Amino acid sequence: MDLLEKKMELKEIQKLEGHTDRVWSLAWNPTTGVAGIPAMLASCSGDKTVRIWQQNTSLPSNPWECKAVLDETHTRTVRSCAWSPSGKLLATGSFDATTAIWEHVGDDFECVATLEGHENEVKSVSWNSSGSLLATCSRDKSVWIWEVLPGNEFECVSVLQGHTQDVKMVQWHPFMDVLFSCSYDNTIKVWAGDDDSDDWECLQTLNESNNGHSSTVWALSFNSTGDKMVTCSDDLTLKVWGNDSATKQTNGDEFSPWRHLCTLSGFHDRTIFSVHWSR
């Protein structure tokens, strides 16, 4: 145990400062930090801005530097940010009820689209594994699915209305076009499209009746193989869910229900707002 604890020790290497209000979300650019490409991440804040940070590998200590400040687009808190799988597009969701799409060209970032439709605060944004779909969710209880079209055009292909309260987070499965959403209504919902009709439907709801959470579900994360999911909640617990068939599924038609595996409790004494599975 001592050896394990030593290996797991985290040490601060640098503090990134610049935002003037709370930082709500961070996202690593998935195409950086490999093959000699300096690592890059985005941060978004209550100061209405998004900052792009990049590691300067030309200096011995490899310090992080702010390369860009994306402002003058959102008019309220920027709550969520997510890079597309290609690393070329960054989606940012804001309390101003819009989602902005930024394109990374050279050293510049340009807002190429503003997605409107939600009635109020956008709480989370998420790209599917191919980058062809973007999901957004809001305090208006809805989840919107947008299709990415040529020329940085986006079309809403479905509005999902199953939740009865504020939707806190949306997250696509690591390699299937199956979408998960969690909410103030204490549930996690699983959504997939119908190839025949192009409609999206709720395939499963995880709630107290199947060993789910008893209060707001704030976040979820998948393991790298996509057969396990962890959720966190205002009820002070983490719950791990499993699906033996997840690695074999390709779409909602072959859906196999998720089942509760275990509950981790007694470790936190206040709300658990975020959880992330290591890769």
UniProtKB/TrEMBL annotation:
Signal peptide stretch: none
WD repeats, residue ranges: 16-54, 71-103, 115-148, 160-191, 210-251
Example of a GO biological process term: iron-sulfur cluster assembly
Keywords, alphabetical: Repeat, WD repeat
Gene Ontology terms: cellular component: cytosolic [4Fe-4S] assembly targeting complex
Transmembrane segments: none
Keyword Repeat tagged: yes
CDD domains attached to this UniProt entry: WD40 (cd00200)
PROSITE patterns per UniProt: WD_REPEATS_1, WD_REPEATS_2, WD_REPEATS_REGION
Taxonomic superkingdom: Eukaryota
SUPFAM superfamilies (alphabetical): WD40 repeat-like
Function of the protein: Essential component of the cytosolic iron-sulfur (Fe/S) protein assembly machinery. Required for the maturation of extramitochondrial Fe/S proteins.
The family this protein is said to belong to: Belongs to the WD repeat CIA1 family.
Protein known as: Probable cytosolic iron-sulfur protein assembly protein CIAO1 homolog
Species this protein is from: Aquilegia coerulea (Rocky mountain columbine)
